[in-house]
Specification:
By secondary structure, this protein is of the alpha+beta class. The protein is 17% helix and 55% strand. It has an eight-stranded antiparallel β-barrel. A hairpin with a 3-residue loop joins strand 1 and strand 2. The termini are far apart.
Length: 197
């Protein structure tokens, strides 16, 4: 029942964002007035005004006995200057020397997401993800488990050139599935980049 409520919340957030954005659009007959407003819009002048953008995130965590290297490429389409939908792939390679047996393997998965831009620099983020994790045990054995996750949070974008920017975001896995690597309300931080075309 708890999972159904969370999924309904996810759908409501997406629908509310889409409806709220659609209500801000002007009819097609607005003509020259609409063009003038669009030119003066702060969204039209920023690098995020492109319709399709791509980018991603890199994961690097190195310590004496444990290391992770990964990448999360993404591509998204802007329905409006504020609202976009996209998809992301995830891959991580892990090397774990904390126990008597050296273990290594990979985690991988995919997700779909939406972003709603509150201002030119701040946005909300909703993401539904399915990851396949390799679990290691102290006796040297391992097994693979699937983990569904629903991330809610937001981020900040800083332009670095005409069509490129850096993102920093904080997300929370609100599903808290038993196979999720995150504890309840543990934040997930990421820094990445975007390129528009």
């Amino acid at each position: 029942m708890k999972k159904i409520k969370i999924v309904l919340l996810f759908i409501t957030v997406l629908f509310s964002s889409a409806v709220g954005t659609a209500q801000q659009q002007r009819p097609a007959w607005a003509g020259k007035q609409e063009s003038a407003e669009k030119k003066s819009s702060v969204y039209a002048r920023e690098p995020h005004s492109v319709q399709v953008y791509y980018g991603g995130y890199f994961t690097m965590n190195f310590s004496k006995n444990y290391s992770v290297v990964g990448a999360q490429p993404l591509i998204a389409y802007k329905l409006t200057p504020q609202l976009s939908f996209g998809t992301q792939l995830s891959f991580e390679y892990i090397n774990d020397n904390r126990y008597s047996v050296n273990q290594n393997g990979s985690n991988y998965g995919a997700s779909i997401f939406s972003r709603y831009r509150l201002t030119p620099y701040f946005y909300t983020h909703t993401e539904l993800s399915l990851m396949s994790y390799k679990w290691f045990y102290t006796d040297g054995s391992d097994e693979r488990k699937l983990a569904p996750m629903l991330y809610l949070g937001g981020g900040f974008s800083q332009p670095v050139s005409e069509n490129t920017w850096i993102n920093a975001q904080v997300l929370f896995d609100v599903l808290n599935h038993r196979n999720s690597p995150y504890k309840k309300w543990e934040p997930y931080y990421s820094i990445g980049f975007g390129v528009g075309f």
